[in-house]
Amino acid sequence: MSARAVRLTDVDIDNALAKAHLETVFQPIFSLPDRTLLRHEAFVRWDHPGLGNLPPGAFISFFESQGRIGDLTRYVLRQAIHQISTAEDLGSPALSINLSLTDLRDETLPGDILTLLAEAGFPASQLTLECPPFTPDIPAPEQLQH
After folding, report:
1. Torsion of CA 7, 11, 13, 19, to 10 degrees
2. DSSP bridge partners of 54
3. pTM here?
4. What is the pLDDT of residue 79?
5. Which string of DSSP letters, residue by residue, matches 28-43?
């Protein structure tokens, strides 16, 4: 499904987070040389009650523009850690999640991640944080610092 124009509001975000309209799905990551499962990458999908299934391209930038991407990141982290921790048939408990540039600037995110990991008893060594590519509109030293 391609990205489509949708009209969303902060109320939609609040409802999605509170009523679990957001679904965390997983993509397995394999080592090709030895065909072993390395980890699962978490992605988010939104089953909007009025608009149906929204592709990430239709809502991720909206969370960003509303200053709510941190809420989405924490939601996905919490859900993904819980699901990976309790699933018996996934084969690997390792997890990978994508961060945004805004997440990298959020000074409270590292502490929140540590809290989520501790609450779930999930080892930090099993979590990979995937950072976005550098962007020319932010000075390179600042990007490296984050």
Report:
1. -120
2. 46
3. 0.85
4. 95
5. EEEETTTTEEEEEEEE
